[in-house]
Amino acid sequence: MDNFDDQVCKECIAVGEYTGDDPSQVAKLLGCNRTNEIQIKRAGTKYRIEIEQIVNRKIVKIIADSNVSLDRVYSLLMEILRFENLYEGIFFMFTSFKVDGAECIEKYRKLFLNYTHSNKQYVMLPMDLDDQTYKKLFLKSQKVIKKAFLRHQAFLNALFVNDLTVDVRMSLILEVFESLVNEMASNGEIILKAQPYRIYTNPCPKCGAIVTRKDPNKKVYLVDKIYAVMNEYGKDIFVGDSKTKIARKSKNLRNKIDHISKQKNAMQGEQAGFYLHKFGLMYRIIILKMIDGYNDEIQRTVNTWTVAMNNSYASYRILP
């Protein structure tokens, strides 16, 4: 079975718990108690979505106004969880999955995306949203994520899929940033020393129609892109760090993994793990700013977290 067997339903209730490997990480959820309820319409069907989180347990209930395919309901569930992950930095592993009142967790467990089984936890950002704001930001996030869905999936795999080595995680998230910076530079949202693409326009020799071709600009390097995005969006996260050295060591790590070649001065081990946290947070901040979901409270949390990380893992920092 590789799908939901064309099952239809009107109600789906997913329950998840975050346990993690470190009790202190679970303890960070002690103050998390919230509820949200929104209603949206998709393809003629109205859905009521209720989210309740009590400490390390989350319940998402989706109720449709008519029978719809379980595939569509599950897709909507994953949209909600990906949106909340931008703030929470975790996934709550499914412990129950009820469809029209029937428990289906064992029947469908293997269909759940890999990162939903994650035991990873990254910095939690405040998510104190009223229902109207929640809906507005959720809908905005879907436009941003769907525009570059594979890139966002790569981000989630880099941070949350279990059993990946830290150098592979770091290499994957750098690929995410290369794609993101290319797009932002092309739109004038970030400054590089040159445009990431060269545009060629030529007439077709057969029909005369104007044909446009876009090729990567080989004079703009990954190290330039990493530095540019840190300089634009990572001033607080990388405060006191050497962004120039980080960009070079990150580039060397990516080349080591992608090209399976020896690289001197490559980021590795605990240092790569330390900066994976920082790059992962920077990506989340960029997306939240794109949807107007970034605020002063989040900024204070980022600053507090950065100081704590720098103090706790001072030996892993790359300094000027």
Question: Roughly how much helix do the residues carry, as a percent range?
Answer: 40-55%
Main sheet record = 6 strands, antiparallel
Domain count: the total is 2
- What percentage of the residues does DSSP assign to strands (E)? 15-25%
What structural keywords apply?
320 residues, alpha+beta, six-stranded antiparallel sheet, two-stranded antiparallel ribbon, 45% helix, globular
Q: How would you describe this structure to a colleague?
A:
With 320 residues, this protein is an alpha+beta fold. It folds into two domains: 8-147, no CATH class; 166-316, no CATH class. The chain is 45% helix and 21% strand. The chain has helices at 23-27, 70-88, 105-108, 131-147, 149-160, 166-186, 222-233, 243-258, 269-290, 296-312, and strands spanning 8-17, 33-42, 45-54, 57-69, 93-99, 102-103, 197-203, 210-216. It has a six-stranded antiparallel beta sheet with strand order 2-3-4-1-5-6. Strands 7-8 form a two-stranded antiparallel ribbon. Helix 5 (149-160) runs antiparallel to helix 6. The radius of gyration is 22 Å and the shape is globular. 32% of the residues are buried. The mean pLDDT is 92.
